[in-house]
Amino acid sequence: MKYRNKKDYLLGKDSTELEEFAIQFGEPAFRGRQLYCWLYTKRAANFSSMTDLARSFRERLTEDTLISPVKVLTEEYGSDGSCKLLFGLPDGNRVEGVLIPDNERLTACLSSQVGCAIGCKFCATGKIGFKRNLSASEIVGQFIALETAANQRITNVVMMGMGEPLLNRSAVFKAARLITDPDGLGVSRRRFCISTVGWTPGILAMCKSNMRFKLTVSLNGTTDEQRNSLMRFTKRFPLLDVLKAAEKYVHIAKQRVTFTYLLLNGFNDSLEDAHRLIKLVKHIPCKVNLMEYNEIGSEFHQSDKKQTEDFQSVLRSAGLTAIIRTSRGEDIAAACGQLAGGYETNTGK
Ligand code: SF4
Question: Hey, what CATH class is 13-66 in?
Answer without folding.
Answer: mainly alpha
